[in-house]
Structures are given as structure tokens and as C-alpha cells.
Amino acid sequence: MPLPLAAAPTLTALAVNPLDAHSLLATFGTLGIAFVLFAETGLLIGFFLPGDSLLFTAGLLCAGSATAPGHLSLPWVLLAAIAGALAGAQTGYLLGRRAGPAFLARTRSRKIAEGTARAGEILERYGHAKAIVLARFLPIVRTVLNPLAGVLAVPARTFALWQVLGGLLWTVGVTLAGYALGASVPSIDRYLLPIIALVVVVSLIPVALELRRARRTRRAEGGV
Q1: Residue 113, Cβ neighbours under 10 Å: how many?
Q2: Whole-model pTM?
Q3: CB of 126 within 8 A of CB of 134?
Q4: How many helices, marked H, and strands, marked E, lie in the chain?
Q5: How many Cα atoms occupy the beta-carbon half-sphere of 195 within 13 Å?
Q6: Could you give the CA distance from residue 140 to residue 33 in angstroms, rounded to a whole number?
């Protein structure tokens, strides 16, 4: 007996690609934004999730026609993004504070280890306030800095204040940037995939620059 047409989206959802922002939004919608950002900013296992491209893509989809496939409501997207990002960061901080250094030491992921080192350097270089805000815009770093802040016993009020400010700047800023682009370019859906790819590349530039700077520092210290 053939499956009804209504069952097709369910079968498609089973093949969701967690690395593809458009796939995540098409499958889980607005609610998925909150879960993805919570996992990326609060749980070490979420370091690979596409936070930047997810927010930007969601903004693009909000700008399209209300009758277009995949259209999202801007107020609900912003609410879900803010809730997920703020709750995730606070959860990561509490996990780090309660579990201590062992929380970060349990993972064998090379990327998380590198992200932890980078987060530590940013905290030392910029201080608590600037580092917590800046980390929001750096993939992987925004995953590990929150528990690291807990491990290093950053004052709870200080962390809460600056993670809220950084979370608002990141979620609202990136989402509205996508919305502004979608509202200004006719038929933006035609260029969705290239734009998402560009956002991913741009979001990785700060990480690449930090890695390059760290390598130069190590070489200088080693006399190479």
C-alpha cells in the first residue's frame, strides 16, 4: 500500500544533515533553532553545528513571501535563537563550574582541544568581558569558552551579564543581516545555497586568523 503524500516530509526529515543549515530549518523549523544553538553553545558535542549559517539562513527565509516554502516568522526566529543561545551558554558555564577541569579533559576531539586553547588565550588576552562577547562570533570557541569560564571560576554575575550581551549581539545581529539581505534582493531563494556557503567561509575567517597568529607566536617563542 503506497504511503500518503503527507508522509513524504517525515521520511525526508529522517535524512536531515546536521551540518546543513537549510536542511535543519526545513526539517525542524523555528524550534530547531533553539535546540541547535543550545547544543552548540552549551554542550561540547555541539561544536560542529552551523550556528552562524543557521541564523543567517533563518533570516533569509523570514524575508521571503509568507506563502513561499520554508518561510519563517522573524519574531519567533529571534525568540528561539535568543532563548537557545542564552540558555546554552549558561548551561555550559554551570557544567564547567561544577565538573571542573575534568569536564573538558574527557573529550579526545582535536578540534575541541584546539578550541579550548584558543578560548583560554582569548580570555587571557582580552579579559572576561570582551572574551565572552567575542567568543560568540568564533565557531568552536563559542562552544568551549562557556564551560572553560566555569572551570576558571569567572564570577557568575560577570559571565551572565556579558554572555547575555554577546548572545543578543550575535543572534539578533546575524539573523537581521540575513533578513536585510533577503528583503533587498528579489528572488533570494535562487541564491540560497551559494550565500550559505559564503557565510560558512566568512565565519571561519576569524578562526583561521587566530590559528595563523598562534602559529607565529609559537614559532617566535621557539626561535624558529
Answers
A1: 14
A2: 0.76
A3: yes
A4: 9, 0
A5: 22
A6: 17
